[in-house]
């Protein structure tokens, strides 16, 4: 099929295979593109100035999937790219999604969007903290909610404000705005919190990485605070059997959650959620109330 060329903010973007089903429920690539194009106002503040990593699934989540941080071949010259430091003094050139045209171009590749906890302008210095709550079956997101409430209050004790979103998979992500601090220090602090939670919530939370210990408990993954790691960006679609979204949720929703389906948020749900709640992570994106790292 001949690609369709559209103009976005003065840039020509070639879109391909718009009728192609991407998810088993029949969600097409055109619907995926429409989602990203119409939600740029909430997505872009979380992407801007953050090096982008892409999980691509051009034939849907059941087909080939590949993760890349490099600038894809054929990237238009108007898309911002930057050399990002790596260990050992090396660098890697990565995409920065700075505007709607770049977001639409990226979405045409069919991607999950992942970003680090630091800005390209201040590499390796975290401006947010992340805790990834991952339930081991038969535990579910309902159990994650119990852990999230404990962590929210514990973070508040250290002057940090926590925001929550679904992972778009099985669990939850908690995010806190920070005054810029070394990623290694953020990692140490997150590890401390995970260990404290595991002690305070025995049989429910676990901080150990060993997979054999996770069944029936919520693993608090603190490792995504490392400078080399990335986390699913707020509002990104996920490469799952259904078009799930890593969507912001309220603390009331977390406190009231009694079944996993209550926090199973998908592409068609997003317009209604945004109309009802607005952008729940606006303050996080603007780094409002950013606080120094808690004592550790």
UniProtKB/TrEMBL annotation:
Residues 28-280 form the DNA ligase D polymerase domain. The keyword Ligase applies. The keyword Lipid metabolism does not apply. InterPro entries: LigD_pol_dom, MtLigD_Pol-like, NHEJ_LigD. One of its GO terms (molecular function) is ligase activity. It comes from the Bacteria. Keywords: Ligase. Pfam families: LigD_Prim-Pol. NCBIfam families: ligD_pol. This is ATP-dependent DNA ligase. It comes from Streptomyces hainanensis.
């Amino acid at each position: 099929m001949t690609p369709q060329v559209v103009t976005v903010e003065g840039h020509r973007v070639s879109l391909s295979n718009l009728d192609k089903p991407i998810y088993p429920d029949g969600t097409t690539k055109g619907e995926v593109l429409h989602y990203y194009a119409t939600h740029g106002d909430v997505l872009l503040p979380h992407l801007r100035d953050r090096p982008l990593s892409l999980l691509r699934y051009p034939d849907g989540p059941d087909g080939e999937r590949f993760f890349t941080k490099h600038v894809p071949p054929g990237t238009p010259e108007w898309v911002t790219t930057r050399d990002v430091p790596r260990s050992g003094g090396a660098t890697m050139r990565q995409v920065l999604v700075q505007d709607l045209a770049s977001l639409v171009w990226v979405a045409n590749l069919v991607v999950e969007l992942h970003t680090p906890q630091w800005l390209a302008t201040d590499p390796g210095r975290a401006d947010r903290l992340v805790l990834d709550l991952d339930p081991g079956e038969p535990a579910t997101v309902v159990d994650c909610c119990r852990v999230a409430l404990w962590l929210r209050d514990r973070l508040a004790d250290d002057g940090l404000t926590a925001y929550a979103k679904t992972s778009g998979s099985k669990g939850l992500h908690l995010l806190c705005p920070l005054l810029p601090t070394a990623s290694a220090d953020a990692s140490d602090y997150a590890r401390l919190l995970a260990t404290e939670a595991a002690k305070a919530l025995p049989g429910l939370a676990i901080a150990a990485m060993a997979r054999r210990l996770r069944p029936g408990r919520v693993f608090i993954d603190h490792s995504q605070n490392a400078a080399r790691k990335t986390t699913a960006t707020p509002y990104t679609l996920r490469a799952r059997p259904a078009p799930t979204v890593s969507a912001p949720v309220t603390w009331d929703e977390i406190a009231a959650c009694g079944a996993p389906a209550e926090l199973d948020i998908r592409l068609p749900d997003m317009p209604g959620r945004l109309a009802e709640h607005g952008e729940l992570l606006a303050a996080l994106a603007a780094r409002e109330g950013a606080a120094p790292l808690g004592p550790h």
